[in-house]
Amino acid sequence: MSALVDQLVAQVIGLEVGLLSCQARLTAVTDDEALHDLRTTVRRLRSLLRPLRGLPGVEQLESAASAVGQLTTPLRDREVLAAYLHQHGYHEAADRRLRLQPEAYRHVAQSPELAQLLLILDAFPRFIRASEHQKLLKGLRPRIEKRLAKQWQALDVALKDPGHDRHRLRLLIKRVRYAAEAYPELNKLPTNAMSRLKKAQGALGDWHDCWQWLAQAEHQPDLQPCVAVWQRTMAKAEGQADRVLDKLRTDCF
Question: Which of 51, 119, 146, 163 has fewest C-beta within 10 Å?
């Protein structure tokens, strides 16, 4: 048990250091990967926390991490769209969006949401140690294994549903994959599951990008020249996603 708790504490401290680094990069606007790295770090934290629900301090930390995720999602979406627009020659439309980013980066760095997350995260290792001392972490390993298995079972059910919702499948796949990365020594997935999950997530991500951009094009006129291409790409991505999901279901369930 102590080894597992030590690993948890080490991961939390490492994630805190990563967030502080991202905050400094956002404040100084040093590079255009800082926001992405911040979101990746928050995602890793949430994946670590999800199987720990019910333990002291977890709910507050999850809530704080979720708030940072909600704050940064539209900003990251704008980055991804701008990169696409630049890549395909729509430079003015891309620049209009990118001009907003430096101020957005500084806003995130100074936001109460990030400050609250860092405050709670700094105290969390002490919560874990106190819980361990009070014998509240008994059965932690099987508890985590049970939560991981439950996520895998939920994905199994969703994949076998002929009317599956691609948005929900994408979320379930991300949860399973990131949880397995957070607890590599506890995951009991089939050998080839991680590669299949990654491919499925990528295929659904391509579809989701087009779906999201088409929705934005309804109220952003400068995206209209892209609509026809996005419609074709989305249809193609749907077919690709279905094939990859079939492969995941056949190989891993």
Answer: 163
